Amino acid sequence: MEAIRKVQGRTVTDKDIKTIQSIIASNPNWHRTRISQEVCHLWNWKNDAGKLKDIAARAMLRKLDKDNLIDLPAPVRSANNGYRYQSKQKKPKYQPIVEKLSAIQPIQIKQVKTQEQARLFRSLLTHFHYLGYSGPVGENLRYLVYDSKNRILGCLLFGAPAWRVASRDRYIGWDEAGRRKGLSRIANNMRFLILPEVKVPHLASHLLGKISRRVSADWQDKYGHPIALLETYVENNRFRGTCYKAANWIKTGETTGLTRNHRIGKPKAPIKSVWLYPLSSLYHTLASGGQ
Which domain holds residue 263? Predict the structure, then answer.
């Protein structure tokens, strides 16, 4: 009986494995990116804008290689993503701000588009966010936040949603087929940083409100489809989720602490509260299983 696996959100059969093995064997000079592009072309693996999802394909190939199902060529760069995204720059300087929110308005939220912006974004998270930054996989949006005087305040990162979360999935009310179809319409607020010496009451909830009004349109512009729901996961032993609550996000439950590779026994990861923000004009598409 043919084995069927779920890798990077796709069904991968024994036949698919043999196809990938054949591509690698027939093209010994191809690097990993070229192989992933060929897989995307072969499977018609594209986003809604018609672009190849080769980043997701490379992540899938790495997982198959790790499980010894295929034998990938060595990476062109010897460093992995974790190394690549370690900031070798000095800690970025910024101006401490202790003011009322009204005094620094209007707040500017700028999407990261240039190399200079990308370096600043990476450096901010590397030096000031407790989770650091290893670079997102797949569709994502990065934002830098400034005040009216162009003083840096922080940054936000939105990326791919968690594959399966019980309280989120119950809240939406979808079945397995609906979940598979709808995941691409969810964006995960993976990082939210306000710099340590920026002390502005209500700034965090204000930013969440502003970003929720634009993130779907930004996603549409970049990837060819909108976002219907925002999600985030707040570590209970560190934070209370106060800014999300103030911004009208909905707490739907908690994670179990079990990971993909450790589904039984004692929790292997911190327990997190699950917060969701439905984008009202689009949310019904998730609950109905449509796109």
Answer: 86-287
